[in-house]
Design goal:
The protein is α+β, with helices and mostly antiparallel strands and 457 residues long. It has three domains: 3-88, RNA polymerase II/Efflux pump adaptor protein, barrel-sandwich hybrid domain (OB fold (Dihydrolipoamide Acetyltransferase, E2P)), CATH 2.40.50; 147-215 and 227-237, no CATH class; 247-448, 2-Layer Sandwich (Chloramphenicol Acetyltransferase). The protein contains nine helices and 19 strands. The strands form five sheets. Strands 9, 12, 15, 16, 17, 18 and 19 form a seven-stranded mixed β-sheet that branches. A four-stranded antiparallel β-sheet has the order 1-8-6-3, covered by helices on one side. It has a four-stranded antiparallel β-sheet with strand order 5-4-2-7, with no helix packed on it. The longest helix has 18 residues, at 258-275.
Length: 457
């Protein structure tokens, strides 16, 4: 007989906590090794967590909606099937204070998580949890050497390195992580947005990423009110921070994709037979973008204080719309991939994003992002530049349009062409309008003069 503790995993070096969003197994149910047991949400990714061993789930210690530090024991498995089956049919004993956090852990929506109906047990009475503190302008004082102070100052190595480079004292900050832990997002907010030391980066915003000043918005009679999901709150915070950080400008170019359309039509059957993947427009666009980034490196750069970081890597983020939000998986070193390789990478990341199978490192490190809102019929948009990059490309709907074309004899003619509007939002702090338009003209030229390659697979 053996019991195995199942812990909240650390989904990335900078991750200090996770929210257990949903249990996929009930107490008493059998699980196979590597079979998904529960879902978690972090500030990087939503993911299904597999069982570390085969057995029976005999105890659930963390309820749905609770946010706990990494390595917290969330459940226990019994590997002896007979004993586990017997234990699974009983009401689990109330845990002692030493085995559980000293007070109920606030859920992501600011409420105290209630016990799951699948638990089947009445928890032992505990002191009511105090209401979660409202965002404060000034860091609340903490006892020297307290858990809160130690956790805040022991942020990830990356955060400590960034703080040291900019002369920022972590002990003077209150971050958005557990017990005020300063996350990468917080330290970037301090540097890029001019937040004074001693003030929480998270304190500038209400829980939806909305600035806290101004009158509160109250529901009217008959309105339906729902708390934001974890991914929606994070998206709101990231978008608000990105909008505040960069000097956004958007330039639009109409791209004639008729040549690309003809190549797709002629080679799609061969391509699908060789690769098992459908040939879409997006890999052609990515290839043209990669060539353009090599010619115009400022589009692949980032701002760090008063410095410009020109990225050597070409990591292309691809925005993926999910039923529950938005996520941007990243194709690392995309310049090393062929058309077929790009197609496989795009399809694989999108499929695993919808199945919550992405790893934290697969949604981090983009140097340039592409968002394809045209799949929903939109012809143009002004996308927001992700923090840490200098530009994002939006792709409008691809459709046939009448175009005036010059003839060889000097007379114009009207022809039906396959076209789309591409929108480049760029950070005007480091990217001038001329640079942005030269980059877009390069991409336009590559796509409009593309030739049929000997082998696109």
């Amino acid at each position: 007989m053996a019991r195995i503790d199942v812990a909240m995993p650390q989904m990335g070096e900078s991750i200090a906590e996770g929210t257990l969003s949903r249990w996929l197994k009930k107490v008493g149910e059998s699980v196979k090794r590597d079979e998904p047991m529960f879902e978690i949400s972090t500030d990087k990714v939503d993911a299904e967590i597999p069982a570390p061993s085969a057995g029976v789930l005999v105890e659930i210690l963390v309820q749905e909606g609770q946010t706990v530090p990494v390595q917290t024991i969330v459940a226990r498995l019994e590997t002896d099937a007979a004993v586990a089956a017997a234990a699974g049919g009983q009401r689990p004993e109330a845990r002692t204070g030493a085995e559980l956090p000293p007070a109920p852990v606030p859920a992501g929506d600011g409420t105290t998580a209630a016990p799951s109906a699948t638990q089947g047990a009445t928890p032992a009475p505990r002191a009511p949890s105090p209401a979660p503190p409202k965002p404060a302008d000034v860091t609340a004082p903490s006892t020297p050497g307290s858990f809160e102070e130690r956790l805040r100052t022991k942020s990830s190595p990356l955060v400590r390195k960034i703080a040291a480079e900019h002369g920022i004292e972590l002990a003077g900050l209150s971050g958005s992580g557990l017990a005020g832990r300063v996350t990468k997002k917080d330290i970037i907010a301090v540097i890029e947005s001019g937040v004074p030391a001693g003030r929480s980066a998270a304190s500038l915003y209400a829980p939806g990423g909305v600035e806290t000043h101004g009158p509160p918005i109250e529901p009217w009679p008959g309105d339906r009110v729902e708390p934001m999901t974890k991914i929606r709150r994070l998206t709101a915070e990231h978008m608000t921070l990105a909008r505040r950080t960069a000097a956004h400008v958007t330039t639009f170019h109409e791209i004639d994709l008729t040549r690309v359309a003809k190549i797709r039509q002629q080679r799609r059957a061969e391509f699908e037979a060789q690769t098992g993947e459908k040939l879409t427009y997006l890999p052609f666009v990515i290839q043209a973008v990669l060539q353009g980034l090599a010619q115009h490196p400022v589009i692949n750069a980032a701002v760090s204080g008063d410095r410009i970081i020109y990225r050597k890597a070409y990591n292309i983020g691809i925005a993926v719309a999910l039923d529950w939000g938005l996520i941007v998986p990243v194709i690392k070193n995309a310049d090393n991939l062929s058309l077929a390789g790009l197609t496989r990478a795009v399809n694989d990341l999108a499929t695993r994003a919808r199945a919550k199978k992405l790893r934290p490192e697969e949604v981090d490190g983009a140097t340039f992002t592409i968002t394809n809102y045209g799949v929903f019929g939109s012809i143009a948009g002004t996308p927001i530049i992700p923090v840490g990059t200098s530009a994002i490309l939006g792709l409008g709907a691809i459709e046939k349009r009448p175009k005036v074309l010059p003839g060889v004899d000097g007379e114009d003619s009207i022809a039906i062409r396959t076209c789309a509007y591409f929108a480049l939002s760029f950070d005007h702090r480091i990217v001038d309008g001329a640079d942005a338009d030269k980059f877009m003209s390069f991409v336009k030229s590559r796509l409009e003069t593309v030739t049929d390659p000997p082998s696109i697979a």
